[in-house]
Amino acid sequence: MNKCCRHQPAAPPCGGIMEKLSIKTPDDFIALMGHSLGFWPDESLVCVILDDKRIGATLRVNLPVPGSDTKHFIEQVVHHVGTDRQATGVVFGIFTHEPWTPGELRPHEGVMEELTGRLSQQGVSVRDGWLIGESTFTNYLLMGADTSVSYPLDGVLSSELNAELVFRGSSIEASPGFRIPVLARPALNTEILRHCFRIEAMNPQAAITRARTLWNKMLDGGREPTDDEAAELIANLKFISVRDRLLADIPGIDDSMRDLLLGQTKQSPHWKRVERASEVLFQLYMRTDGTDAAPVLTGLGVIQWWEGHGSKAHECFQRALESDPEYRLAQLTDHLVREGILSDWATDKQTAYQPPHTRGPEIGGLGMA
């Protein structure tokens, strides 16, 4: 199945004047694709949505393999582009190792022609596109013409936009892999088991109240949990009713637990609090072992899905299922990811997650034809 990820660039605060980062060259656009996703895509179609000369969301979808359902692929892209009602255009990058010889059909030519036509019916035009290989990129729309030229990918690393985003703390990983700390701390199996016995002996509502108090203390603070706090939090996450309540508490907004877990509230999450939850879950994961890791990794995956990072969410869920193959929440949420279903938060520019390096400037002022 195609896995989607979608990232929204920062929107300016009301009444504020915001510095603009200009996109002047193809190198800038390709750099933006990598920084928006957080990794260098492989065998992927990446679409940057435009609203006139403003940059919208970035969408990544696995390229269709021979014999796959290209109709589903096209419907998926058209649907996700269409969620931005202000979209007037897209630029795309086809990241592939597939070779091309002049005189032959361009890679995925039939699919791209059909996709272009479908987008045009929605009033969305394809402004530009590139075929990006291992070491060069070429204008996809000019391939086969006398004016077609390939450029070295090294220019992307020296582009003005790439330098500015790196300066602001952004980076492009070699792959979408979710970085898990290598140096783990000793597992807390005995302490976790002790807290599980205590939780089982408590009134369910009292157990949830106690768990929320500790969880919110961690999310509202900045320190690392002690070993005993970590053991208690890990134990809490092993109980389904407690786990769901704690996950729903992460966004820091008052709404139904179901809508919070599915990322479909009208109010935007407090994303800094969500980032803090990821930090705490990482710290918990470093102290888990065996099946105890499944709820923690699933929580990390749910956050990645909320943020629109489908590939990273999938990896978290797969690692959770390696820890516990029967872990139901990981199975269900990974199914959403594999079907290309995004959280509502990730498809709305008013609620979508903004990485820290994009929260300052507005990206606009395209200098390209």
The CATH superfamily of the largest domain turns out to be Cytidine Deaminase, domain 2
* Helical amount: 40-55%
Task: Supply the CATH class of the largest domain.
Answer: Alpha Beta
The overall pLDDT average reads 85
Specify the structural class.
alpha+beta
InterPro entries: DUF4192 (IPR025447), TPR-like_helical_dom_sf (IPR011990), TPR_rpt (IPR019734)
Keywords: TPR repeat
Organism: Arthrobacter psychrochitiniphilus
Pfam family, one: DUF4192
Molecular structure report:
The chain has 369 residues and is α+β, with helices and mostly antiparallel strands. It folds into two domains: 180 residues, Cytidine Deaminase, domain 2; 159 residues, Alpha Horseshoe (Serine Threonine Protein Phosphatase 5, Tetratricopeptide repeat), CATH 1.25.40. The strands form two sheets. The chain has a seven-stranded mixed beta sheet, sandwiched between helices. It has a two-stranded parallel sheet with strand order 2-9. Strand 6 and strand 7 form a beta hairpin. The protein is elongated, with a radius of gyration of 22 Å. The C terminus is likely disordered.
